[in-house]
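FORM 7B: Structural annotation worksheet

SECTION A. Query
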Amino acid sequence: MALEVRGSMDGSEPANVLEVMRQQWASMVSMGGMFVGTILLGLSIQPAYDFDEVRAFGAEGASKGGYVALELLFIMIFTVLIIWLARRGLDFIIKAIVMFALWFSLFYAVQPYSALLWWLIGIGSVNLVFGSTVVISTALMLLLHLYPEWYVVNTVGVLVGAGVITLIGVSFVPVLIIAFMVAAAVYDHWAVNSSKHMLELADTMIKNKLPVLLVAPKGKGYSFIEEDDRVMRSEESEDMDWDDPAPHIKPESDGRDALFMGLGDVIFPGMLVISSVSFLPEWGPEIGTIFGTMYAGPLAVGLGTLFGGLCGYVALMTKVARGEAQAGLPLLNGGSILGYLISGVIAVGPAALWQDISFL
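SECTION B. Predicted structure
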């Protein structure tokens, strides 16, 4: 997915980039916090779903590359379908499809904490857990539909992201997740910088106020409800005069500027974090959590992967500060993979980082 900043863009020289980053540090830190928070939330519920019965393709499917290829194919089909519907003005169908998918992912993120709440009260009813999870998930989606302000979109987006990274992360071994991330990064680079259809997809989601992206406002008066539906592509105009960009940039005082980050930019690094904790050898002391047990070795690799992704995020911000839409996955996935390899060699040894895989 694409990242973009609208606001003061003073040029592409390093000094100007640092100045823009200084001016926009609050939104960049806020976005970084959502990036880390989504992954940590997914990590917190990982023990609740780390069972063969929950894995998307079972225990054997976790090491089969054909299923990862199928996932990537589904992403491409979904992208084409959404753009096709958007160009025909069928936004209501887009919203129905996406809202259902979001509700499903939201359910899995909310369910462990719903169960925890009832357990703390002293009630262990499965029906109550299921019912309350349905109510909470439905209520959040209804709130999103009726009042899609940026903080509502971010709340749902973080929960949805945590659910997705957990369900996919416990379903595939790290080697396959890395292959998935590399393929997705190449696709993202092409979709943002060459075909630019990813920018069109992002604008469609902004127009329909759907939480498949995260929003970090620059000003207190910012309203996502009033956001333009050509946010990403507006900076791609061929007639823009880059020698005098000021006429094309909204004043900072209007409070409408924001940083946008596609939810996929969080999901892919997060999947590798969850997969590391789920499939690497159980080495080191046991660490008790509210939903189960983790081991120090795999957890250290997971956190190292998260740190690598965060380093990729910082690098990405230097590009975003130039005021252009950027493909996020090449840097974010690259940083996460590098963090996985370095921390993995240190924490569990290089041999543990390879898993035997097959296509079918």
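SECTION C. Observations
Residues 2-237+245-353 form one domain. Confidence is low (pLDDT under 50) at residues 1-12, 235-256.

SECTION D. Sign-off
Analyst initials: ____
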